[in-house]
Amino acid sequence: MTKPSLPQGTRDFGPDVVRKRNYIFNTIRNVFELYGFQPLETPAMENLDTLMGKYGEEGDKLIFKILNNGLDNADKEKQIREDFEKVLQGKNVKGITERALKYDLTIPFARYVAINHNQLSFPFKRYQIQPVWRADRPQKGRYREFYQCDADVVGSNSLLNEAELALIYHQVFTQLGIKNYEVKINHRKILTALAELCGGAEKMNEIAIAIDKLDKIGVEKVKDELKQKGLNENQLTVVERYLAVEGNNSEKMDALNTLIGTTESGRKGIEDLKEIFNNPHLSSISYQLDPTLARGLNYYTGIIFEAKASEEVKIGSIGGGGRYDDLTGLFGVPNIPGVGISFGVDRIYDVMEELNLFPDDVHVGTQILFFNLGENESKAAFTIMQQLRNKNIRCELYHENVKFDKQFKYAEKKNIPYVIIIGSKELEENTCTIKNLLQNSQQTISQQELLNYDF
Amino acid sequence: MTKPSLPQGTRDFGPDVVRKRNYIFNTIRNVFELYGFQPLETPAMENLDTLMGKYGEEGDKLIFKILNNGLDNADKEKQIREDFEKVLQGKNVKGITERALKYDLTIPFARYVAINHNQLSFPFKRYQIQPVWRADRPQKGRYREFYQCDADVVGSNSLLNEAELALIYHQVFTQLGIKNYEVKINHRKILTALAELCGGAEKMNEIAIAIDKLDKIGVEKVKDELKQKGLNENQLTVVERYLAVEGNNSEKMDALNTLIGTTESGRKGIEDLKEIFNNPHLSSISYQLDPTLARGLNYYTGIIFEAKASEEVKIGSIGGGGRYDDLTGLFGVPNIPGVGISFGVDRIYDVMEELNLFPDDVHVGTQILFFNLGENESKAAFTIMQQLRNKNIRCELYHENVKFDKQFKYAEKKNIPYVIIIGSKELEENTCTIKNLLQNSQQTISQQELLNYDF
């Protein structure tokens, strides 16, 4: 007999949690649909080739690989032994694994577009809400199986898309009741421009990683780090001026223009940002140009986003995204530019719990529990129940005739708001007693009235 | 560069297919909720211990195992080598795999109940709609990754549950428009009784497997098979009489009663069936007592179900289920009886395609495409579009100003029913032209009227 347990870093979601998570998923899904995005689902498994080498060396290690079947096949033993030697030497692993669990939704999406590009009509706007798996060390808020929630447009260079994605953040957070969110915006070409002025474009990643820490370690330590990376005093002065850029969005744009507008990259970045900031609809949303925003993923080439919850909850990033020039190029289909965003659903869930933002009735599944008070009584209840179900009202008849207490307790534990009692007296009089457990009230009405009752 | 492909037996679901599948899932989910079932989600991964040994020897082989991470860890090499030897000898596999992908939803559900039984309120009614994985040889209609769709009640012996599950089949198929479905019902104890009369209860599986083939191979070959299994002529006569049971449900009940009602198992089986057949609500649904129905899974102990689509589509079983006495006993928590059913979503999808049962508008995502006819025109369109989106109308603005043809084609390929044109003339007059692509009609109205248009 097995003592049951769950794999580390994975979770069961019981009914209450599923309902709350679905509330978030449905809100996001509806907004994606309002903006013309279409659903896509790809399998949990991908060929190992599709995934390996796409997430850097560290990423490769975090991919969950699936054991090939047939390891118990004696005919194959020699081959398997040889392959296993290679695995132990850190080389090819094909002999024992050819498939893996997907690590994110972006690479499978690129793979899908590459396979189907001749059938798709571009721009192709898809959203995808599915689990992904990472063999990371589990810790608070970090899981080995978790949902991602992405929307991407591919096949369009228009900055209309960026404006709409920013509006999607606004609309989702507003509908969820997350008020003090902030969408930070930057442009990879602005970071490129800074790097060009500080020793060359190839330094961009190092510089981006350092300045991204400004909030945590302060300007002096950022400069120390960059000094170690070989930046000279002049270059450090440029970085310092860059980090000092402040004010409202248009003041920041002016300052950046002075600082990096002399480079081609800088000009292009500023131009793009201006275009989306000029969209009058963005004035109603809470976005902020943040020149230190970098986003880790190397495939971003244009505008980048990060969404944060309000300071009070200290939960950090609840979404991110950006523009990329050539994702499907990885799979032999070049020149399909795109832009996308993602929502961090686990963190959004935590924010909503902490700020008590879920609606009061998010727990309600069954609306009515019919008490079971004997054979004839429950037959009558069953008949009424079927009529209510045909009117799309969710109800249950308690499964056995036991005392009131136990039946009440069941209703309470299951968050059922109404209880209906048909005992021998009610049966005789064709009535029923409705108890509203939330308001602690009750009334007796005819069974006919019950069918038109406003639950 | 990788030439992209999908793992054998897995599928991408593009937008149209996802919408159709969601139509089925949502219908089933709503009916489950109408009957008081609550959602549960368990992880894709389970500990290998949880799954192994639960599906028979063949089943164990079909479980997809996940490779442990850290195979590239030099410190662990000796251990890994030793463990790998054991794998090659068909023994313990812990050193290289400790986790696996779930094979069905039932065992993870039992594991969940066993872990959480102190917190749950019984009867616990859960539904679960999630993918499962099997390393089966892929063929038409058989996949390595597919969805299961289950509802189970645990912690109740009441046959009310069986009656409701039969009604759920009826309600789901009716809502989906699948008219000539049939729910076959039998009772494992009736099969036990037959076996007891034919050489002993331990023969039940062999007898069940043989008589289940009646439709395909005919009565003589069934008898041949059973003769080889050691049944004597008297016993074969009993089987023949059993297979000859026919008529309507109550005639069949009478015949079975004569044949096997002398045994305790037989009496109990007939009693249970009588009770649920007496539920007046079942008279409206299409069910049929089928004494040859066996269902493969050994854990069934009571009433069993199988749902079939009409003969015309030749797709066979589209659902099944039954009662079990002690599923959580596998995980050390005995005495929690239960009953459940399952829907075969891939097959239901095929039935609906073949009979053309999906609603005409199942493809419609975006309702309106605004044409892009220049900078000022599209700015005006964008403003109207945001107002419509706030009214929950799904719309898009084409991403660039190109000729009409291309924009029309986009709308058509995406099944968008309305196109709205705001050109320079409309911009000046504050009007717009609406084209209904389905009806091939158009009209020009004021932009104010558009906001109250009934799409």
From the structure above, extract its key features:
homodimer, 455 residues, alpha+beta, eight-stranded mixed sheet, five-stranded mixed sheet, 16 strands, 41% helix, globular
Q: Helix segment count of chain A?
A: 17
Oligomer: homodimer
Shape of chain A: globular
Helix percentage of chain A: 40-55%
Q: Which strand order spans the largest sheet of chain A, edge to edge or round the barrel?
A: 1-5-6-11-10-9-7-8
Notes on the structure:
The structure is a homodimer of 455-residue chains. With 455 residues, chain A is an alpha+beta fold. Helices cover 41% and strands 19% of the residues of chain A. Chain A contains 17 helices and 16 strands. Chain A has an eight-stranded mixed β-sheet with strand order 1-5-6-11-10-9-7-8. A five-stranded mixed β-sheet of chain A has the order 13-12-14-15-16. A three-stranded antiparallel β-sheet of chain A has the order 2-4-3. In chain A, a hairpin with a 4-residue loop joins strand 15 (431-436) and strand 16. The mean pLDDT of chain A is 92. Chains A and B meet through helix 1, strand 1, strand 2, strand 3 and helix 4 of A and helix 1, strand 1, strand 2, strand 3 and helix 4 of B.
In short:
2 copies of one chain form a homodimer. Chain A has 455 residues and is of the alpha+beta class.
